[in-house]
Write a structure and sequence with these properties.
This protein is an alpha+beta fold. The chain has five helices and five strands; from the N terminus they run αααβαβαβββ. It has helices at 7-26, 45-52, 66-74, 94-103, 116-125; strands at residues 85-89, 106-110, 132-136, 144-146, 161-166. Strands 1-2-5-3-4 form a five-stranded mixed beta sheet, sandwiched between helices. α1 packs across α2 (45-52) and α4 crosses α5.
Length: 172
């Protein structure tokens, strides 16, 4: 599935995949669509489910999202007591990311790698760089955890990455 902002190619790929699934089902076979993480949380399966669920029975098995895997890997709770949590996609505008960082105690920025330069700028602008952790390929053998985001360059990172930003002063 093409991971681009222009949804034309992605929609064509999902339509084609849905047609292939329909043809396999028509042969009397079952189909499994494996996902990394949770299939309905920022997952590609959502787009296939939307195309197929009115025509056939679809079962969904929940997975562990990268947000929860990251919290576990960092050994840090995402929220405590009345802390607010926001989860956004790195595709948002820098202004939207800044607003989210200013309005919420905990912020998770998903699919961050391609947008890392603007996210780092938003973190710096809001004074939250020191509260941020950056993770790539969380839960894999090649996972990377960077506690000091000032070590990151201004280059892009991989698609499967996220920032976890938590207030330094936590409610207890």
């Amino acid at each position: 599935m093409p991971m681009k902002n222009d949804r034309t190619g992605a929609n064509q790929a999902y339509d084609l995949a849905a047609d292939k699934i329909r043809s396999v089902i028509a042969e009397g076979k079952n189909v499994v669509f494996l996902c990394e993480g949770d299939p309905l949380f920022f997952g590609s399966f959502s787009y296939l489910l939307d195309r197929l669920q009115d025509e056939m029975t679809c079962a969904v098995v929940p997975g562990i999202s990268s947000v929860h895997a990251a919290s576990s890997a960092l050994k840090l709770p995402l929220s405590m007591l009345t802390e607010s949590v926001a989860i956004i996609n790195g595709r948002h505008s820098e202004e939207k990311i800044r607003q989210t960082l200013q309005q919420h105690d905990s912020v998770i920025i998903m699919k961050a790698g391609p947008y890392r330069p603007k996210i780092l700028a938003a973190l710096a602008d809001t004074g939250r760089s020191e509260e941020a952790n950056y993770l790539e390929y969380i839960g894999r053998d090649d996972q990377v955890i960077i506690d000091d985001v000032s070590e990151l360059g201004d280059d892009k990172g991989p698609y499967f990455s996220l920032f976890v930003v938590l207030k330094k002063e936590r409610q207890r």
